[in-house]
Amino acid sequence: MSLPHAILTALLEKPSSGLELTRRFDRSFGFFWSATHQQIYRELGKLEQSGAIRALPSEAPARGQKKEYEVLPAGRAELAAWAAAGQDPRPMRDPLLLRMRAAAVVGTAGLAAELRRHLDLHERQLEMYEGIERRDFPPERDSEQDRLRHLVLRGGIELETFWIRWLTQALDTVDGED
């Protein structure tokens, strides 16, 4: 996935200003594709320049007024082509796993505390995802779009559940060595 495609997706869901997009990334897209505010604004400029999006005309032009963007047909076509294309999974690169491998060689001092910290972070993230699920996906929301969005969230829930289970096992192993 790339940032331009994430932005096109967000704008097709709802035309937005740059500020609104950054807030949506902080609350939603950022869970699986993060970007800084500067990256989002820079990409909006590139997408506008390429003809994929345009700033909607404002009713009362004023200096410093926020621009709201919408996706143009070229942007929709680009996103559809990208969504239909294949892509191999990315190899996992996780510093915690590398730290554990290093601890196997140099000793586990401090490792249990780091594992507990990660466990706490994943438990909080899972709690947040489950709250979003309860709030945003009641049984009556059953359109195809809702089912696909819910499936993305379920992926996050399953990943957090995996990490919690794995970290618990890792702590049992490390604590058993003491």
TrEMBL record:
<dbReference type="InterPro" id="IPR036388">
    <property type="entry name" value="WH-like_DNA-bd_sf"/>
</dbReference>
<protein>
    <submittedName>
        <fullName>PadR family transcriptional regulator</fullName>
    </submittedName>
</protein>
<dbReference type="InterPro" id="IPR036390">
    <property type="entry name" value="WH_DNA-bd_sf"/>
</dbReference>
<dbReference type="Pfam" id="PF03551">
    <property type="entry name" value="PadR"/>
</dbReference>
<dbReference type="Pfam" id="PF10400">
    <property type="entry name" value="Vir_act_alpha_C"/>
</dbReference>
<dbReference type="InterPro" id="IPR018309">
    <property type="entry name" value="Tscrpt_reg_PadR_C"/>
</dbReference>
<feature type="domain" description="Transcription regulator PadR N-terminal">
    <location>
        <begin position="7"/>
        <end position="80"/>
    </location>
</feature>
<dbReference type="InterPro" id="IPR005149">
    <property type="entry name" value="Tscrpt_reg_PadR_N"/>
</dbReference>
<feature type="domain" description="Transcription regulator PadR C-terminal">
    <location>
        <begin position="92"/>
        <end position="173"/>
    </location>
</feature>
